[in-house]
Amino acid sequence: MTDHSPTTETSRYSTGERAAIIFSCMLGFALDLYDVLIMPFLMSSIQASLKISLTQVASVTSLTLIGSVIGGALFGWLGDRIGRKQALQFTLGVFAAGSIVSAFAWDYASLAVLRFITGVGLGGEWGAGMVLFNEAWNKDRRGLGSAFIQGSAVMASAGASIVGVWATTSFSPEWGWRIALLTGGSPILLMIFIRFFMPESKAWLQFDRARNSGLVEARVKTTNTLLLMFQGRLLPISIMCLAWMMAYMFCYYGIVVFTPTLMQRSLGTPPEVVRNISVIASIVGGCSYICMGLLNDAFGRRFGALVPGLAWAVMACALYAFGHEKFADSLFGFPMFWTYIAFVIGNSALGVVGTWLSEIYPIEVRSTAVSLIYMAGRGVGSLAPVVVPLAAAGFGGELATGMLIVVPAIVLFLAMTLLLPETRGRDLAAVATSRRAA
Fold it and tell me: Known InterPro entries for this protein (predicted)?
């Protein structure tokens, strides 16, 4: 008889297959974030080309993020029904096609609809890839691997800035932004790579065999996984996970979007100094992701989120104390430099998210839950760029004070970090015994 035990299933990945998995996940996440981050560099060109308002251009990004929430639910559900690999290919296809066609938008309405479709594709990529990675990877090294995947955000940020500036300065206002959006079609190449080189999750294949042969309860076959993740013991866990991720994203977008403006307009920081701060912060952030990945493998998932969360608390205190101190010709003597460094260290909490969520949820709802929770958080995060200016206006136009609206989100993030169950070392291959037929 063939042994389909969890240990046997997960140990049958070759070195090449594991390399293909982490390469695909890193590149997929980088392309996902690249497509979001390039838009700010194109806004002026789009506004001039389509003759629309700045508010309309900005709303396109919000619509993209709203689409990603729907995509997270849709492709997460598909990942639980047809497999992680197939769902990942479908989501990359929608993402790439939407980005390519967006380059040919002719007015605000067409651009809004096409970027919304792009967002739907974006919404499924992270969850499908992250779940497959965690089901395939050594359970003692998941934290580090996940940190590498999330750390690819550095490549996305650099690529978006390089391509965005190149396209808008090298071509006419009519064509520069279109050429930049066409580069968002590159996930098609990743789809081909995944089709031929990346394996399906053996944990999911094991579960699918058990489901089709009747070894798990019939309700797992028929129940909508979106509903299943909010039933029974999963209900309070799902509520906590949603609150946790929404709090993270609200804080992240509430600070990252406005810090350059705060430094330049409010604190008189020269543009080249802001650029240098961004470069140094990117290096520190990448190192922080890796360090936190190692530490959360050694000490637990809670540790990997709690320490960065405390760095955010330090950032908030520094923003309150020094958010009005002007730049005085010394980078290392500039309080906002150290405030921003504390912020990017706090960002590395995201490195543990995919692994922790994958370990929390049972295999039959794992893809749905991980995708929906992450993208719902991103959707709430998209509100921060609206809320922060309103808060600033309420405090007499002080941007630094307005940015402190993220403090409740930091407190909520830390509270949920303490309440979520510790899962380090959990086997992701096993079909939960509570789902087996009597």
Answer: MFS, MFS_dom, MFS_trans_sf, Sugar_transporter_CS
How far is Cα of residue 401 from the mean position of the Cα atoms in its chain?
27
For residue range 401-412, list pLDDT tens digits in order.
999 999 999 999
- The shares of helix, strand and coil residues in the chain, as percent rounded to the nearest 5, are 80, 0, 20
What 3 state SS string does 306-335 have? HHHHHHHHHHHHHHHHHCCCCCCCCCCCCH
Classified as helix, coil or strand, 300 is coil
Q: Is residue 1 part of a domain?
A: no
In the block, residue with structure tokens 């709090």? 247
Q: Would residue 103 count as lying in a domain?
A: yes
In a domain, 293, yes or no: yes
CATH label of the domain that carries residue 420: 1.20.1250.20
Return the closest-CA partner of residue 177 out of 165, 159, 189, 185.
165
What's the rounded Cα separation, in Å, for the pair 263 and 272?
A: 11
Rg (CA), the chain: 22
6 to 32, 85, 224, 249, 405: CA distances (angstroms) = 31, 19, 25, 34, 46
What domain range includes position 344?
6-435
CA-angle at 280, arms to 274 and 283, nearest 5° = 140
Tokens, residue 52 = 């629309």
Number of domains, the chain: 1
Contacts of 222 (CB under 8 A, 6+ apart): none
Output the pTM of the full model.
0.84
Q: Which tokens hold the place of 21?
A: 């998995």
121 located within any domain? yes
CA distance 91 to 112: 19
Which three-class secondary structure string do you get for 125-146? Answer: HHHHHHHHHHHHCCCCCHHHHH
Is residue 170 within 8 A of residue 176, CB to CB? The reply is yes
Cα separation of 420 and 406, whole Å? 21
